[in-house]
Amino acid sequence: MTFILRWPSILVLLALVLMCVAGALAAAGVIADFQAPASGVSQVDAQVAEAQAAAANSAAAGASWIDVGLLAGAALFFLIAAVRLIRRTQAFWTWLLGFALFGGRWAYSQQGDLMQTVQSIDVNAYLAPQTLIEDLGSPTFQIGLLGVVLIVGLFIFIVDAADRAYWDKQGA
Question: Taking the domains of the chain in order of start, what are their residue ranges?
Answer without folding.
Answer: 2-37+47-110+127-170
